[in-house]
Design brief:
- It is a single chain.
- The chain has helices spanning 2-8, 50-63, 165-172, and strands at 66-80, 83-100, 104-112, 121-126, 129-133, 143-146, 178-182, 192-197, 208-213, 220-227, 230-242.
- With 253 residues, it is mainly beta.
- It has an eleven-stranded antiparallel β-sheet with strand order 6-5-4-3-2-1-11-10-9-8-7.
- The longest helix is centred in the first third of the chain and has 14 residues, at 50-63.
- The radius of gyration is 18 Å and the shape is globular.
- The relative contact order is 0.23.
């Protein structure tokens, strides 16, 4: 049992990568600075109509009952286990996730800067409780945890229930959200980019949030949380499937 508990410490790497056991170098990120230029040969898409794009994505989210994603995520912050620490911690992961309305979720770590988390699985069937299983031999016994458990808090002190991609999309399209179209950034030069205000920020240091959406399919492409001009949390959507219909067995562990 002790080994299983060790395997899930910091398990928010499933969703946006919390800190590993020590301070680490910041992972490389594609340029998300609003002043950055597109790469040669890749002309940036013009600024979209932000309010119109918001209305379309809000409607699309309301009409779907299931989503599947594969996402690369990175995060930098000065928290560990819900407590402030002296050194900034950085981490990254690649995960596969399946969501079913309203709150069911399965997430599996495919790659992680914390080696023992690769293969870890988390399942949520209610907004207050999760089942987790570590990767490899450490994950023989699944464990039930509160969704508010400090082991599921990221290195920016973001709670698990706020920090998976679907929760972010719901927050960024919530009532009161304002989307301003901006020129496309090099991280996704053909996507429609918006700068978002009027939403609840997940921590007080954040000053701006950016989202890139494929205008034809309304599939999210990338998102970032910024402190000044620096991205401190990023998501790159490698795969995004609307209207997924996962069987009930997906959410059993």
């Amino acid at each position: 049992m002790r080994g299983a508990i060790v395997a899930i410490t910091g398990l928010s790497l499933l969703l946006a990568a919390c800190g590993s056991s020590g301070a680490t170098p910041r992972p490389a990120r594609p340029s998300l600075s609003p002043g950055a230029s597109a790469a040669p040969g890749q002309p940036a898409a013009p600024a979209p109509d932000g309010p119109a794009l918001l209305a379309k994505l809000r409607d699309r989210l309301a009409r779907t009952s299931g989503i599947e994603v594969e996402v690369k995520a990175s995060s930098s912050g000065s928290y560990y286990g819900g407590k402030r620490v002296a050194q900034e911690r950085s981490s990254s992961s690649r995960s596969r996730m399946t969501w079913a309305s309203p709150t069911r979720l399965r997430a599996q770590v495919l790659e992680s800067t914390t080696a023992f988390l690769a293969g870890s699985v988390l399942v949520m069937n209610s907004p207050t409780q999760v089942r987790v299983k570590g990767g490899g031999a450490l994950g023989l016994v699944p464990i039930t945890m509160k969704a508010s458990d400090t082991r599921l808090i990221t290195n920016r002190n973001h709670y698990f229930t706020d920090n998976h991609p679907i929760a972010h999309l719901q927050r960024l399209t919530s009532s009161g959200a304002t989307w301003e179209g901006i020129k496309a950034l090099p991280a996704a030069p053909k996507a429609s980019w918006v700068s978002i205000s009027g939403v609840r920020r997940l921590d007080t240091e954040l000053t701006r949030e950016l989202l890139a959406v494929d205008p034809a399919t309304l599939q999210p492409v990338a998102m970032a949380m910024m402190v000044a001009e620096r991205p401190v949390v990023t998501f790159q959507f490698l795969r995004f499937v609307w209207d997924a219909t996962p069987p009930d067995s997906t959410f059993k562990l």
